[in-house]
Amino acid sequence: MDLVGGCKAFVAVSEAGSFTRGAALARIPQSVASRRISALERHLGERLFDRSSRRAVLTPFGRDMLPSAQRLVRLADAIEQDAQRAKSRPLRIAVPETCTTRDLAELDSEARAHDLFLEFHPATPGERAELVRTHDVRAAITAVPADAGTWTVPLGLAGTAAMPPRAVHLEALRVGRSRRVPRRRIWIQPEDDVPHIRDRLMRVRDAVGLHPAQVAVAESLTAAIADVLGSADLLVCSAAQARELDMAWRSIGEVRLERGFGIAAAVTDDAERIRSRLFNAVARSLGVTVDRQEAE
User: Fold this and answer.
1) What digits encode the pLDDT tens for the residues 171-188?
2) Of 3.30.479.10, 3.50.50.60, 3.40.190.290, 3.40.50.1480, which CATH number belongs to 89-296?
3) What is the Cα–Cα distance from 166 to 164, expressed in whole angstroms?
4) What is the DSSP string of 166-230?
5) Over the stretch 207-258, which tens digit does the pLDDT of each residue have?
6) Helices 3-16 and 60-88, packing angle to 10 deg
7) pTM
8) Residue 41 belongs to what H/E stretch?
């Protein structure tokens, strides 16, 4: 039987002195209150109320049982409140620094519709993995090779200077022997300072004969953007990031680069909840074209 429900009806009726008023106090129909109390009496093996009176008068057994029932009702209420607080406790998640405030606000808004309350911790790829390992966050959007990613984001080159009509070929950035033209550099932001992106780009750099300094890792995204804004340099980024920065964006002619993202969590259920309930919202925050991602 529903012991808690029976005790709640029992306590409410005893406090109100009436089955009608007690049912209203418990916010249940009178017939339900009567059934629950009758079931409780059968479970306990004794009458709780004297049915010969027009009022809800406790029997001696009922008076003896009332304090225990009240304690159980208080404990049940406390458990429900604790459960609500636990569900409302923010799930701290490490996210890429490339996610904008608007991106994260929209992700948080959608998460709340699924009773998930997120607290964001922007960090670099290496930091995100470490934060999960040390349990400083409950989950992280991790950087992984594209073929292992739950989400993937194509990368290209963005800049403020004139761009070719289609792809940018790195070999076109070579400087002649006169060296009168400044070398155009390609900046890798911290989010892409991972082997499956950085090393592939460096190999293309060497293969087409660029100077080693022409492809470099920036100390921060802000520093990389500053260099690009003040020159003909280029930034490795997604198309969504280029739009946010008001830069022209082109794919890279010699190589296809993609960011891959997965979910890591200290508790498997946390990762699964984010993946299953917030797939599209996370995708948008990362700059993924959702329709394309789902089609793949």
Assistant:
1) 999 875 445 557 899 999
2) 3.40.190.290
3) 6
4) SPBPGGGG---TT--SPPP-EEEPGGG-SHHHHHHHHHHHHHHT--GGGEEE-S-HHHHHHHHHT
5) 999 999 999 999 999 999 999 998 999 999 999 999 999 999 999 999 999 9
6) 120
7) 0.69
8) helix 30-44
